[in-house]
Description:
Blueprint: H1 8-17, E1 20-24, H2 31-38, E2 43-46, H3 50-58, H4 60-66, E3 71-74, H5 82-92, E4 100-104, H6 107-117, E5 122-126, H7 132-138, H8 144-150, H9 155-158, H10 164-183, H11 189-201, E6 205-206, H12 209-216, H13 220-232, E7 236-239, E8 255-258, H14 261-267, H15 273-278, H16 282-300, E9 307-311, E10 316-323, E11 326-332, H17 344-353, E12 358-365, E13 371-372, E14 378-381, H18 382-385
Parallel strand pairs: 1-4, 1-5, 2-3, 3-4, 11-12, 12-14
Antiparallel strand pairs: 6-8, 7-8, 9-10, 10-11, 13-14
Amino acid sequence: MWIPRDVEKHLRRSVATRPVVVLTGARQTGKTSTLRRLFPRHGFVSLDLPTEAEQAEKEPDAFLRRHPAPVIIDEVQYAPGLFRHLKATVDAHRGRHGQYLLTGSQKFTLMKGVSESLAGRSDIIELETLSLSEIRGAFPKTGVETAVVRGGFPELYANTRIDFVTYYNSYLATYLERDVRSLANVGSLRDFERFLRACALRSANLLNKADLARDVGIAPSTANQWLSMLEASGQAVLLEPWFSNRTKSIIKSPKLYLADTGLLCALLNIRSERDLRQSPSVGAVWETFVFAQLRQRERRAGRAASLFFWRDRTREVDFVAEAGGRVELFEAKWTELPAAGDAVNLSFVRDVLGKPRTAGGAIVCRAPNSFSLSNGFRALSIADFV
Length: 386
């Protein structure tokens, strides 16, 4: 079963107007399937095949003759030497749009090649796991808690018979063996897996690299390198704090989030909705889920780098969405019935920033229906939020 993706319109527009389109994102988010479905007349080659990757790297001209444009090149980061030759080929036919559609699941390697050779010639689009709106577009009766625990990897919804616990165990093994080994020289995959689980325990919390390194038993420089690896492979996201000239004593550390709650729950040994409700980490898991929905909402609106959090020494607002010089404030609460007291931090930050600069605010919760709170904010059901 095909699940329509919100990014499809953006992809069609980019392919119609740009010579190169780069689709990036974590493994198994549906990059290849989406491109092949939308552009069936394009050729296809995957550099997951060692022989293809070797020729693309060592004999790029011969490779491009074997696979002429228009073509989809999958996992292009395995042949970084190909980018310079793509540039020459694209420049020779600059007026042709949609010549090369590239996918990659390792952003740092991919972006280096794109920035050095394809700058000004390509659109870069990121594909994340399914949002709740995409899931419910295909399966309207999917419960929120089910979506949180099951996560958003498309294969788990295209084939609902798949056991998602087994799926995530296999995903972790594949990720550790393929992406981690290729991205950096990790001496012990067991140490890296412990590091990944330690990051899961810290999802939706301020990032303290020194504490993280100490708890895992690695050097701070190693923790910094491994965090970059998680970001590069689309497994983790760092959310930066929002600053204003009218605020003081602002926290400068980012917050750490795992990108998908299905993988997060697997790492936390949350295997069912009942486990989720009983878990001491339920609040952090919910905040991680809301953050994923908010990222996709902002991406659909074409707003890049518009999300932050606000925190001083005593108070925090989970999310600040900035657009047009004004901000929206959001708190993520697991409760089904938030009260005005739950919005005290929203009120505080609204007063600090000033009402003219605050476009609105809400508590994103599990309430079946949205409703207004007495202090001018709303209790916003996740269904209305997405």
